[in-house]
Amino acid sequence: MSDEADSRVPVTVLTGFLGSGKTTLLNHILTANHGKKLAVIENEFGEVGVDDALVKKRFDTKEEIFEMNNGCICCTVRGDLIRILSKLLKRKEKLDGIIIETTGMADPAPVAQTFFMDESMKEYARLDGIITLVDAKHVVQHLDEEKPEGAENEAVEQVVFADRLLLNKIDLVDEEELGRVEARLRTLNKYAPIIRCTNAAVGMDAVLGVHAFDLDRILGIDPSFLEDSEHEHDASITSIGFEQAGDLDMGRLNAWVSKLLQEKGVDIFRMKGVLSIAGSEDKYVFQAVHMLFTGETLEPWGDEPHINKLIVIGRNLPREEITNSFKACFVDAAASAVAPK
After folding, report:
1. CA distance 51 to 43
2. What does pTM read for this prediction?
């Protein structure tokens, strides 16, 4: 049966290393005028979920969003993924598509396996494509990173299994460097089209309804693809999450971020948070990838309690040091007993 004649619900897997732009792309999809009824499944790496505030709180979307924050989608919560998918696929009102946004630490292969090894998935859904976002400025260092014995390099796996490579953040590097990055990607994946973009802005035809996943190609890369085998993540990569009421002093916060990224930036893969700043009625969204960081105001808090959510993901993070220094950024530092989750 050709994909065009296939009545099963198409599933798009959005993957890419930490900070590559997956949530930004998801926001584009949710606000685009494509007329499709979609369901979104999000999986975050970390102790505190932040993406919910960056997606569904930011836009008045009709799409349903399901969060899976208690483990990595490619291993510990794969059963949860199957249960959510089963409920979605058996509804009377048929969806036009399902989007799965993986964590930045996920190997896409086990997620893709779900649609070939589970009988109910094979009947109701088809894998439309694996879309991998690539951070043009930082991807090479992650691809070349040496991992402990037995641990896989997730950034490499994400590129190898991609059906589309979205080379994002091209505004941060020059043309010569872009050429080197594309050449490096081609050593890992000769087939996936490379689409250059900034702020993950691409046409929906590059992401949805691509009919691109080719099981034969994947079996050529990994003959054991359809075997249910365990895999190991790099245990040195951890997260520190904060979820705390109160207001932060902007001056102290800026000084904390600058010092932290200056001293630990190489080892900090991702920081993101929705924060409450003293004297402001608006949510403050903070994001960082290594030593690059941005901040902007979001919508007003309104009647919502001012709960700060922050996640720091990186290698060999000094938990106590980061915890205590962030705690000192609160206006009433003594009253705000911030504990890592």
Report:
1. 9
2. 0.70
